[in-house]
What we know:
It contains 9 helices and no strands. By secondary structure, it is mostly helical. The longest helix has 21 residues. The chain is globular, with a radius of gyration of 18 Å. The model has no long low-confidence stretch (mean pLDDT 92).
Amino acid sequence: MKKTAIAFFLVLILILTGAVTCRSVMKTLYPHKYADAVEKYSAQYGVDKDLVYAVIRTESSFRTDAGSEVGAAGLMQIMPDTFEWLCMRMGEEADFADLYEPDTAIRFGTYLLHLLLDEFGDTRTALAAYHAGRGQVGKWLCDGSVSSDGRTLEHIPFRDTAHYVRKVDRAMQTYKKIYG
């Protein structure tokens, strides 16, 4: 807590003195790391690059060695069974450990986003599926209290998933504001 407060005041002083601009601080907080891979695969799979950056930032904070207690790995935090399914869909043989390589993680993660956007047709619903799983979202879409049309989620019943979707959406909007 003390280190965070000191860092905040140092950044504030740098901004006030003009040594650092608000925009440069925001670019540090919302970086364009791995830009070659993000640009390449977002174009290849027709996924908004700002969405890809937002998912990476939310999932791993751009740490290539990121892993979760439930077994997800890499920049875009893909689960082992999802990785197997993606390998089959892509007609590729790859090792789960390959997800710790930025290019592989971004390629597979962006392809997954592409599939979910195609399947659900809505960014919020696709992000809910990215977080909670396609099967879980399929169940939610059958529930009239969360989806009136059976295609989009008006309400996300899991608090963690609802928070995740809001967090990615805010990050995506911030990327759009910073980088236009």
